[in-house]
Amino acid sequence: xxxxxxxxxxxxxxxxxxxxxxxxxxxxxxxxxxxxxxxxxxxxxxxxxxxxxxxxxxxxxxxxxxxxxxxxxxxxxxxxxxxxxxxxxxxxxxxxxxxxxxxxxxxxxxxxxxxxxxxxxxxxxxxxxxxxxxxxxxxxxxxxxxxxxxxxxxxxxxxxxxxxxxxxxxxxxxxxxxxxxxxxxxxxxxxxxxxxxxxxxxxxxxxxxxxxxxxxxxxxxxxxxxxxxxxxxxxxxxxxxxxxxxxxxxxxxxxxxxxxxxxxxxxxxxxxxxxxxxxxxxxxxxxxxxxxxxxxxxxxxxxxxxxxxxxxxxxxxxxxxxxxxxxxxxxxxxxxxxxxxxxxxxxxxxxxxxxxxxxxxxxxxxxxxxxxxxxxxxxxxxxxxxxxxxxxxxxxxxxxxxxxxxxxxxxxxxxxxxxxxxxxxxxxxxxxxxxxxxxxxxxxxxxxxxxxxxxxxxxxxxxxxxxxxxxxxxxxxxxxxxxxxxxxxxxxxxxxxxxxxxxxxxxxxxxxxxxxxxxxxxxxxxxxxxxxxxxxxx
Length: 538
Ligand code: FAD
Ligand code: SIN
Description:
The chain has helices spanning about 15-25, 45, 60-70, 80-100, 135-145, 220-225, 260, 285-300, 315-320, 325-330, 385-405, 430-445, 455-475, 480-500; strands spanning about 5-10, 30-35, 50, 105, 110-115, 125, 150-155, 155-165, 175-185, 190-200, 230-235, 240-245, 265, 305-310, 340-350, 355, 365-370, 375, 530. The protein is globular and about 65 Å long. The protein folds into 3 domains: about 5-210 and about 215-230 and about 360-405, FAD/NAD(P)-binding domain (3-Layer(bba) Sandwich); about 240-350, Succinate dehydrogenase/fumarate reductase flavoprotein, catalytic domain (Flavocytochrome C3, Chain A, domain 1, Alpha-Beta Complex); about 430-535, Methane Monooxygenase Hydroxylase, Chain G, domain 1. It is an alpha/beta fold and about 550 residues long. The protein has 14 helices and 19 strands. The structure holds flavin-adenine dinucleotide and succinic acid. Flavin-adenine dinucleotide (FAD) binds near residues 15, 35 and 220.
């Protein structure tokens, strides 16, 4: 039996949130980073547009705050919005110092940042590295982490559940002590202990059949926190990105909103613009509006997609500004300079998550959360484009400082090893594959861009049956990665459905035909779910 691995700080996830926290925390102690796939696989790696941050002479913090509040439709926490936005310039400088080469353009006296524009932003303020911002950030941070002798990265280690004093039977105080993690290579479950644990496991796009997210995005952090009794907020607000490439050869490939920022138009199959009649900001309206308009257009026309038209910018410009997207389209036989780009909406971002303050502090002492897994109050009911990388870097920095300041645990607690019981090797993996498909199809068909109570209730009932079946399977067989993913996926899907049912109004990303309007008869509030208060049985 492996003895527990002990570190000062334990980080679950190796995207921007996890890596940045690790680098900062390592100044005060040892750090373990657990990541369920290869270290670079993450939503961060795929980010295209960039990081929103005030930098130009015509922009102000107030304007960025205002744009964020408008997009968030009454649910943002203004003090958190302001704090994160005002910390932005310092963290951009940190990223640049670490080696991130944000794109610049020649100015009269010196090079200037080439700031991009995206939907809902009233000014140009998107720091980007061409159209592959996330790749550059991920690679630069990973390199820094690998060179840091105080940080150890455990690839193919999947956190299964958090270890808490409460679960260990200490009734007087509860606290996170670390986690159990499956070594996906050996199949063994190991114990990782730490004074402070950061959840940086990203989002849950894989809950839906069509998503821009990579396979690792199965909502593990939200599921683990929920099982540990930590409150989860606003899971009904799932952001659908309006423009994912629609092509049989392209799996989940995003066509960045930055294209629309640079003048791309959205056309229907008849070649007509359809957004100008929907919102005065047309193609640059916030994402919920654009995605719903596309969904309606697809349903109205019966045509499977709509089209982006950026042909007039010409080949030279497009190859220079959007090299990744240009070549990805070309591989599918689409020349952006000559052809229309077929696009559809796809699940993209989880606005809700584990409830934290601006320092990433959760309700459970010793547990912190940052990045897409967390709900700080920045995004409210709809995230403004490129605000998530900003949030991840700012909150991780603050969380690292706050956990260092909180100091180590004063006493030693012995943690029991993972109890495998009499679990046998799974012999019917087809059940897992089938249920995985069923959840994702169900969520796409019943809990998508436009919802109804009837469909939500149906989805809820089906998910309860699936959860029962998976629970039986989970406790009867030895753990494997697919089973852990599926267990989390079903739980997170149920949290989305339950949250959606708890909101009898349409607000931001949550659009429900039974209540098509925003309810302004009382102040808006978050939807908070915690284990002890809901019917989801785990
Ligand atoms: P991630 O980067 O997703 O990292 C999560 C990590 O956790 C991964 O390493 C994963 O393997 C690991 N993990 C998950 N579960 C476990 C587990 N159980 N055990 C161990 N490890 C685990 N936002 C912007 O602001 N600007 C953009 O331009 C932008 N473009 C985007 C484009 C695409 C295609 C996508 C998908 C998202 C985009 N976003 C963008 C959103 C943004 O990329 C993410 O919200 C952000 O990168 C999240 O960072 P993170 O560190 O929280 O999570
Ligand atoms: C994009 O490039 O369109 C994605 C930006 C984001 O999700 O913030």
